[in-house]
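Need CarD-like/TRCF RNAP-interacting domain-containing protein's 3D structure for a figure. Predict it.
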Amino acid sequence: MVKEQQQRGLQKLKGDRVAKEGDVSSYKVDPYTLSSGDYVVHKKVGIGRFVGIKFDVSKGSSEAIEYVFIEYADGMAKLPVKQASRMLYPYNL
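Structure prediction for CarD-like/TRCF RNAP-interacting domain-containing protein:
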């Protein structure tokens, strides 16, 4: 069931839209506009549920970085906010 929903979500993402040179895809997500509980599609990982944005310290660093937290069936993932706008897309049924 989940795989079917993922496929439908990805098909909607791809659609028939042809990107023009210099065109910024309107499908990408600004992580600051998401609400807790919104579903998103990560380009490489798949569909997850947006949990929130918060500062966290990564391994080997003492500097706090702002991360987007996404919940998946098998756990939680964090993605730097700077990467999120390139890697996340809205999931619409």
